[in-house]
């Protein structure tokens, strides 16, 4: 867990913007993300299309494809939040997998091999994959053996994005000398999205939307849809003062005087989330300094902006004044 460092004291003007949870319902939906429990059978694209139809919106996008037979966490971005989904593609993933061995193996031998298949591993994508079949390195953060029953091995695995669990099972089977295949798979985490009380089904989403349309009750809809800021919780963050917000919305980089506070784990080259004092996502960018360097800097660019998410004009345009220009020079 990282800590938060305070660089300077600042207040936010309640006349501008609002906390993500307090957005008017139409804006809340248009900047929302659903932590969806994908069922077995449909493709990720089909599930996303159903969400679009249920909510009556024009655009949705998902944060990482799941094969039709695979269930579990499938983040769905709505309208403006679709632009944030690519940030989840490289996020850490977790799965619960049922691996079926082709012959019975002693439990201690299974544990030994699973321990060896942690850290950096080499994988070649399977024949049926959307990427070029080249040998590549992927990191396995942990593997926890949950249960063994006959030839069935149930385990939980945390891994780098782009790890093929089907291939992982095949390689473990080869190492055991008996062969193995993936029988069932469920994704339990994508970055900040987990298999917890925020995970909802298509039925939950449908019911919540009907309560809103028929009775005007927003409460359920606000539970099953999360603010888009949830999708960047896995990134280090930098909080900025109100006077710096609109300048970034107009294409400026983030200068040191605009920083109020930041995560303590930022390294040069890291992708960081830039937020207002109210917690609104303004943009994401690439850090040009480490946390300690930003904390001690009184001038200079600290983040090169990659993508802006906040609309212009929500915060005042003080960046056009000479006083502001002098402060950031």
TrEMBL record:
SMART domains: DKCLD, PUA
A GO MF label: RNA binding
SUPFAM superfamilies, A to Z: Pseudouridine synthase (SSF55120), PUA domain-like (SSF88697)
PUA domain segment(s): 236-310
Active site: 67 (nucleophile)
UniProt xrefs under Pfam families: DKCLD, PUA, TruB_C_2, TruB_N
InterPro entries membership: Dyskerin-like (IPR012960), PsdUridine_synth_cat_dom_sf (IPR020103), PsdUridine_synth_N (IPR002501), PUA (IPR002478), PUA-like_sf (IPR015947), PUA_sf (IPR036974), tRNA_PsdUridine_synth_B_fam (IPR004802), TruB_arch (IPR026326)
Protein role: Could be responsible for synthesis of pseudouridine from uracil-55 in the psi GC loop of transfer RNAs.
Protein name from the UniProt record: Probable tRNA pseudouridine synthase B
Organism listed in the record: Methanothermus fervidus (strain ATCC 43054 / DSM 2088 / JCM 10308 / V24 S)
């Amino acid at each position: 867990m990282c800590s938060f460092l305070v660089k300077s004291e600042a207040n936010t003007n309640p006349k501008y913007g609002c906390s993500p949870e307090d957005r008017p319902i139409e804006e809340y939906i248009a900047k929302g993300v659903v932590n969806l429990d994908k069922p077995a059978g449909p493709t990720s694209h089909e599930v996303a299309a159903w969400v679009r139809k249920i909510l009556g919106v024009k655009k949705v996008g998902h944060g990482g494809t799941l094969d039709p037979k695979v269930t579990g966490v499938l983040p769905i971005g709505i309208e403006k939040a679709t632009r944030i989904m690519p940030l989840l593609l490289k996020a850490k993933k977790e799965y619960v997998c049922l691996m079926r061995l082709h012959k019975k193996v002693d439990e201690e031998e299974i544990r030994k091999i699973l321990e060896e298949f942690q850290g950096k591993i080499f994988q070649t994508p399977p024949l049926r994959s959307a990427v070029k079949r080249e040998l590549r390195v992927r990191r396995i953060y942990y593997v926890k053996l949950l249960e063994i029953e006959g030839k069935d091995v149930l385990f939980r695995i945390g891994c780098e994005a782009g790890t093929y669990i089907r291939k992982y099972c095949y390689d473990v089977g080869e190492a055991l000398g008996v062969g193995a295949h993936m029988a069932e798979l469920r994704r339990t985490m994508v970055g900040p999205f987990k298999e917890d009380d925020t995970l909802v089904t298509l039925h939950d989403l449908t019911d919540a939307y009907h309560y809103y349309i028929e009775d005007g009750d927003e409460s359920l809809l606000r539970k099953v849809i999360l603010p888009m800021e949830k999708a960047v919780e896995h990134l280090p963050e930098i909080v900025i003062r109100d006077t710096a917000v609109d300048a970034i919305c107009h294409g400026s980089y983030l200068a040191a005087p605009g920083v109020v506070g930041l995560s303590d784990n930022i390294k040069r080259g890291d992708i960081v989330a830039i937020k207002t004092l109210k917690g609104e996502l303004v943009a994401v960018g690439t850090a040009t300094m480490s946390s300690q360097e930003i904390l001690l800097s009184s001038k200079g660019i600290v983040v090169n902006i990659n993508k802006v998410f906040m609309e212009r004009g929500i915060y005042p345009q003080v960046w056009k004044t000479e006083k502001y220009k002098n402060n950031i020079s």
